[in-house]
Design brief:
This protein is of the alpha+beta class. Helix content is about 40%, strand content about 20%. Helix 2 crosses helix 4 (about 90-95).
Amino acid sequence: RVPIDFAQQSLAAVLAPYVDDTRAVAIIEGVLLYLDRDQLSATARAVRALAPAVTVLCDEMSPAFFARAGHATHDRLQQFGAPFQIQGVNVPGVWRSAGFREVQRTSIPVRMAELGRGPFPRWLLKTFLRSFAAGYVVAEWESVRT
């Protein structure tokens, strides 16, 4: 775990002691929604600079999912001074621009349904609610060799 205050610190500087000449894995959870476009781009570049081969696992929410299901959470967090910044940002595009390719996307709502924890059954998410199911995911990215 690497603590950082994105408003006050540079992720590249915070990650500098961890730069390696082999391989790195970065798990970024519950963070991207709070970053604006510039912070997200800087984050992707800093993570890409960690090693020649980098794998990233992160949660991503599409603007459509946010519009449908994220407002209640956002409104509550905004009361505590932590609003989502990522609305309208093409998160996959930012990762691609930083030199990553997408490996896979795992739907969080579908996985919750498989575990018996979600509000919708899996069959409904796989048929009528496909865009909802695809809107909140754990994405795996890997660096493109240069």
